[in-house]
């Protein structure tokens, strides 16, 4: 029953999955960049500090949180679509591990945003630049897993 419904809507589900992925990834790439400028260019307590905090809050709450939920909802709908995922293969496991990593990174960014809000950020611009490589690496692994299906 549910399986038939999901099978009928498979391509639409996949389309909305990829649309949500694009929105989520945009935020996952951009928020750490905002942190780099925030820590390197902005004086704590200044008007610009408040402006960065607003930009960071809106990016996380209005774009990234809803996009992450949508990626998970459509992604799990694809998992439960009959005949799409075979857990005997390696790619679903590589993808699942990377997607958990991406979700961890999202929450890590949320915690760092709260640090800025409280005026107690302890990381440098260089450290934020390095952390910025994590979503790039995970994205490459995920896309290769799901397209090449090794
Ligand atoms: C968060 C949990 C996620 C789950 C449960 C999930 C699950 C799935 C499943 C089951 C498929 C269908 C594969 C197929 O049709 O053969 C799929 C497709 C896809 N996923 Fe995800 N995914 C998730 C997150 C992501 C993320 C974070 C990315 C990218 C960074 C991503 C990129 C894609 C792409 C590009 C496709 C389309 C592949 C194709 O053309 O067949 N997914 N996903």
Automatic annotation (TrEMBL):
<feature type="binding site" description="axial binding residue">
    <location>
        <position position="17"/>
    </location>
    <ligand>
        <name>heme</name>
    </ligand>
</feature>
<comment type="pathway">
    <text>Porphyrin-containing compound metabolism; protoporphyrin-IX biosynthesis; protoporphyrin-IX from protoporphyrinogen-IX: step 1/1.</text>
</comment>
<keyword id="KW-0408">Iron</keyword>
<feature type="transmembrane region" description="Helical">
    <location>
        <begin position="62"/>
        <end position="84"/>
    </location>
</feature>
<feature type="transmembrane region" description="Helical">
    <location>
        <begin position="90"/>
        <end position="109"/>
    </location>
</feature>
<comment type="function">
    <text>Catalyzes the oxidation of protoporphyrinogen IX to protoporphyrin IX.</text>
</comment>
<comment type="similarity">
    <text>Belongs to the HemJ family.</text>
</comment>
<dbReference type="GO" id="GO:0005886">
    <property type="term" value="C:plasma membrane"/>
</dbReference>
<keyword id="KW-0812">Transmembrane</keyword>
<dbReference type="GO" id="GO:0006782">
    <property type="term" value="P:protoporphyrinogen IX biosynthetic process"/>
</dbReference>
<feature type="transmembrane region" description="Helical">
    <location>
        <begin position="12"/>
        <end position="31"/>
    </location>
</feature>
<dbReference type="InterPro" id="IPR005265">
    <property type="entry name" value="HemJ-like"/>
</dbReference>
<keyword id="KW-0472">Membrane</keyword>
<keyword id="KW-1003">Cell membrane</keyword>
<dbReference type="Pfam" id="PF03653">
    <property type="entry name" value="UPF0093"/>
</dbReference>
<keyword id="KW-0349">Heme</keyword>
<keyword id="KW-1133">Transmembrane helix</keyword>
<protein>
    <recommendedName>
        <fullName>Protoporphyrinogen IX oxidase</fullName>
        <ecNumber>1.3.99.-</ecNumber>
    </recommendedName>
</protein>
<keyword id="KW-0560">Oxidoreductase</keyword>
<feature type="transmembrane region" description="Helical">
    <location>
        <begin position="130"/>
        <end position="148"/>
    </location>
</feature>
<dbReference type="GO" id="GO:0046872">
    <property type="term" value="F:metal ion binding"/>
</dbReference>
<keyword id="KW-0479">Metal-binding</keyword>
<comment type="subunit">
    <text>Homodimer.</text>
</comment>
<feature type="binding site" description="axial binding residue">
    <location>
        <position position="95"/>
    </location>
    <ligand>
        <name>heme</name>
    </ligand>
</feature>
<dbReference type="GO" id="GO:0070818">
    <property type="term" value="F:protoporphyrinogen oxidase activity"/>
</dbReference>
């Amino acid at each position: 029953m549910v399986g038939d419904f999901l099978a009928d809507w498979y391509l639409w589900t996949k389309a909305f999955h990829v649309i949500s992925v694009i929105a989520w990834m945009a935020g996952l790439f951009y928020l750490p960049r905002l942190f780099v400028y925030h820590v390197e260019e902005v004086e704590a307590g200044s008007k610009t500090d408040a402006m960065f905090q607003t930009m960071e809050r809106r990016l996380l709450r209005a774009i990234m949180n809803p996009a992450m939920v949508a990626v998970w909802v459509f992604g799990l709908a694809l998992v439960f679509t009959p005949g799409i995922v075979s857990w005997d293969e390696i790619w679903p496991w590589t993808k699942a591990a990377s997607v958990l990593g991406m979700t961890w990174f999202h929450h890590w960014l949320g915690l760092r945003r709260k640090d800025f809000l409280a005026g107690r950020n302890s990381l440098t611009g260089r450290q934020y630049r390095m952390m910025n490589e994590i979503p790039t690496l995970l994205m490459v692994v995920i896309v290769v897993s799901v397209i090449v299906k090794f």
